[in-house]
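User: What would this chain look like folded?
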Amino acid sequence: MKVIALDNRGVGKSSRPNYPYTMDIFVEDLKNLLDYLNIHEKIHLCGISMGGMIVQNFALKYTDMVKTLILCATSAYIEPNVINEFVSQIKLLERIDLEKRVLQIVPILFSRSFRKKLKEDTNLFDALKNDTIFITPIVDPTRGQDYSNHGAATLCHDTRDSLNIIKQPTLIMVGTKDRIVPLMNSEFLHERIPNSRLEVFNGLGHAFTIEDSEQVNNVMWNFIKEHLG
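Assistant: Here's the prediction, encoded as structure tokens.
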């Protein structure tokens, strides 16, 4: 099996055009990448947070291209005031040094128990500080304008009335301590997507895929294996 991880526009190594993005732009970026890579068989599609919103829209637009769907820490809709507040907070972090930025954002992303682990494990702390896009690392940082452009796409995301159209086997995963996209958002997805399964990770935060990567990977891989045929 081939695994493809992409950087959305405005993230990582991808280009950063400075204008408000839309969900359809991200959907077409993904479609164009698959075409460029000459991938025509059905795919197992996974998205985390905003990525989970993108893949919902992709599955609705290009239904025949998706074999299974994995939605992590995401939602069918986010209130505009929540998005605008999050973007404003992130833009304020640009004004302070990297170490303080990390200390400000870590409580938002991670559970209390994982934050304790970060204090005890300096190597893990440094790895997150340098590599995680939410913490705006030194290498390829996601800038304030990028978050604003991403926020514009999130503002136009609303699949609440379309989720019943998604018929593919769908795995929905969330941490009970998610402060950004709380558990009820995943429960709503589970209620509306007919062929879905909800996996709840007790005590983990929004970045539960980092907090307990081994368990998360096992759950995802077992789900995919069920639908390889």
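The beta strands are 43-48, 66-72, 170-175, 196-201. If you want, I can go into more detail on any region.
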